[in-house]
Amino acid sequence: MYDFVLGTEEQVYANEKSFLLAVKRMLPRWLNSIPDSEYGAICTIAEESCKGYDGPVIVETGVGASTLALVWFAAKYGGHVYTWDISSAKAAVIRQVCNEALGPYIGDVRRHWTLVPWMSTSSYLGISNLAELDKRVCLSFHDSDHTWSNVEAELRAVSPLMLDGGVIALDDANLRWLDTNIGLVNTYRRKLGWPGLDAKLTAAQTGEIHWLRALDLLRNSFEDVTHLEDEYKLGFAEDPYFAWFDTEFQIKTELGTEQQEALMHRFDAFQVRGFKE
């Protein structure tokens, strides 16, 4: 089903990002939730982060289209991706896509990808447990529960594991939810035919924008933090993703699962050095 013919082997290796983008665009919508421009930024950051390391390690929370790019570049440099997600259905399809679309070039995906079907913040099976395996991380991409309580916990878990010069990246960094994603709650309430939650509750769960909170947290955790320029910010305004899914995007904005405000900061990435013990 996903064994696409997208060029010769030489063409694929000569145009890796174009190949990966073509695979992404053929995914079902429920697996393809990031804009093309963000996907391009992830590809670039993944390659730059993996270069120079023998067996680079990447952390990801939230399985999906991003997994394809991360696995591709980890495999290219003999590395490994650890993904946390509780959705076995999404993970099963992504594993199939990896094996059928990427497999002819990278081999068996199990050599380069481990799915951890558990909460990323768990003390027993979460990100922090990579320390038991003596793993150091060159790239960490966070795209799971978009509440600050979860994002903060993930960042605190991965920070001690980061290599100097490693990159921490966030999806939906322009959201403001504190402990509960009221936008997502209202999405399901609408599907169920239930009334939307009181506006006071929405206000109570809305805080400072996540990318600024993340920047402050990382500056307190590392000696040096660089807010990276990325391809997403250069290309999001003309990204065909937003035009193609325009009707859906408008509804999601109304419900609060998307934010038109500060759309430039839907994706943000930070290079870190010198973890403060």
Q: Give the count of helical stretches.
A: 12
Strand content: 15-25%
User: Helical residue percent?
Assistant: 40-55%
Separation of the first and last Cα atoms: 48 Å
SSE series: HHHEHEHEEHEHHHEHHHE
Quantity of strands, as a count: 7
The unreliable regions are: none
According to CATH, what is the class?
A: Alpha Beta
The strand line-up of the biggest sheet is 3-2-1-4-5-7-6
Which architecture per CATH?
A: 3-Layer(aba) Sandwich
Q: Give the helix/strand class.
A: alpha/beta
- CATH homologous group name: Vaccinia Virus protein VP39
Shape: globular
How does this model look, in words?
By secondary structure, the chain is of the alpha/beta class. The protein has a single domain, classed as Rossmann fold, CATH 3.40.50.150. The chain is 44% helix and 16% strand. A seven-stranded mixed beta sheet has the order 3-2-1-4-5-7-6, with helices on both faces.
